Amino acid sequence: MPVSTVAAEATVAVASNFTAPANQLVEEFEAQSDHDVRLVFGSSGRFFAQISNGAPFDLFFSADQEKPQELIESGLAIDDSLFTYALGVLVLWSRYEQLIQTSPAVLSSNQFNRLAIANARHAPYGVAAEEVLSNLNLLADLQSKLVRGENIAQTFQFVFTGNAELGFVAKSQVYQDNNLISGSAWQVTEDLHSPIRQDAVLLQRASTNDAALEFLSFVRSNRGRSIIESYGYVVGD
Amino acid sequence: MNVSNPTANQIRVAINHELSERGGRAFNLEVDLDLPAKGITAVFGESGSGKTTLLRCIAGLETSSRGEIQVRDAVWQSETDVIPPHQRRVGYVFQESSLFPHLNVKKNIAFGISRSPSLLDSQRYDQIIELMGLAPLLQQYPDQLSGGERQRAAIARALIIEPDLLLMDEPLASLDIKRKQEILPYLESVHEKLDVPIIYVTHSVDEVARLADFSGSAARRQSHRQWRIERSFIGHRASTTTG
Amino acid sequence: MGFSEADVAAILLTLRLATTVTILLLFFGAPLAWWLARTSSRFKGPIGALIALPLVLPPTVLGFYLLIALGPNGPIGQLTQSLGLGTLAFSYSGLVIGSIFYSLPFVVQPLQNAFEAVGDRPLEVAATLGAGPVDRFFSIALPMAKPGFFTAAVLGFAHTVGEFGVVLMIGGNIPGETRVVSVQIYDHVEALAYDQANQLALLMIIFSFLVLLSVYGMQKKSHRQVLRFSP
Lengths: 237, 243, 231
Hints:
Shape of chain B: globular
Oligomer: heterotrimer
Strand order of the largest sheet of chain B: 5-4-1-2-10-9-3-8-7-6
Order of helices and strands of chain B: EEEHEEEHHHEHEHEE
């Protein structure tokens, strides 16, 4: 393995749902390396637009698979760097202790007025949530109770503030070290929706950026994977 | 300060006004005026002596700390009671014309009529329009008038409500000499033809000489921030008895 | 390419929201602006600053606090629940409330300026002519402040149309109820539907330009009118 002698710098665009694990990944990476990694958090759609228009990012950690793929097709990202860094885990969550009895039964009850999901038009967690409702044959019935957050963070706010009694949120938002932090929840079984794959890709301008390359391999290392898992994500093979 | 025996044809202003101006320096104005309810009383004195403040207190635009204001048989201010300005039958002509810019001359003049408890005497209306030479200007807006024309309209507006007392605060000061000469005859005819007592603040000797029946003057008391205004002498035109 | 049905619904909803909010703001903003213009109370500064807060706060901050305030445990939420209205987040009424807070300074400040420009003198003259305080407000202050009302209405309307952060936070993206044009544009961009986003965004730009043009045109005239008072 070549040992780099010059400290390099990489700027990484990260989907905001991955903020907490990304921060810890960088902290540990920088402790063992001379390189600097700068994180920028935001919406994947906005990053896509910015990268397409020449924004100086070296790595892109998207919240979906579609956007990194399109960047590859338009020649802005490197094909063989593409990989799934995390699989999101969907959870039906309420701030109220007794509302969800670790099953989807509450969804067909009259115990709630609003169900928050992420916007399925562009948020992968929203797509998954609609698939779940559809597979439970509840999508049509619940249409009038749905409120849509622009991303999974906003969806969480709707439920956290009690404005929506229930919501499909990311496990990483309500679990810590595999324990529910507060309220009540049902962890959606995997067979009810297609996997929420979050892909990362190396951008063309960073093909020889040591900081970016070494950070990528740290994310894929065993230590990297366990950090990601500790935040409630699943890491595939 | 006691109110002297109220008589139907007398005006009494006895006030003691303390005000702290910007910078916190106190200003004290003491006024003791007994005037007949007729004719023009000129009040003069150097600037800063409280002449305008006196008029504002009489109109109720400012409330003096302590005082008695009585005009004919109406008590405007006593130790216990202060009548708000819109309930005093007072006319006020300011130094600058102060016509309402969004109303034409006719509506400016009519403003007070609709708010006056007494019905309009149309003869008086015609008389005032004629006295002030306003007939050709009624449809004009203030920004289409000269300074003199504006001031004539403002005087008419104040007269039309039949005030018990008309206050004029250097009404000619913002006009040039030519306009002054043009408007003085109008004031003289108001004086001759309408039975309205007027308190007229000025520092022009010429205006005093032409118009005043009586006068009051401001004099310093003790420090330079303390002023007293009182009846000084009966002017040369006063041949009638005072009340 | 024309506007989709969803785009048209968003445009209509936005116009309806902005109209409602503008009318309510003029109604409630005028007395508030009048008070601010005339008072010498020591609360003038704090209340003026409170009203101006949305000018400097990120809309998402305002939106987040509104989301909490409207929620079942928030002060507004408690009030609406006790009135039997439930909670107002994710409803048109909630959006109206949020927009009123958000656009308040854009209406109150021009009105306050206009009332201040009226000055004391015309009101004093009116008082000596027998007009009481309420009469003076309606017969002198309101007509003289008319250009300010035009500016306030246009800015309030336009700012509500352009509102995004607050709507995003308390709206919940419900078609025909809370999905306004700015949110629709955001969704188009996020979904990489750039053509549709362009179309709507262009409409917003043209609209906003025309609005500002009319305000600047009006301001020239109103200066004349204000100056007209003391020549």
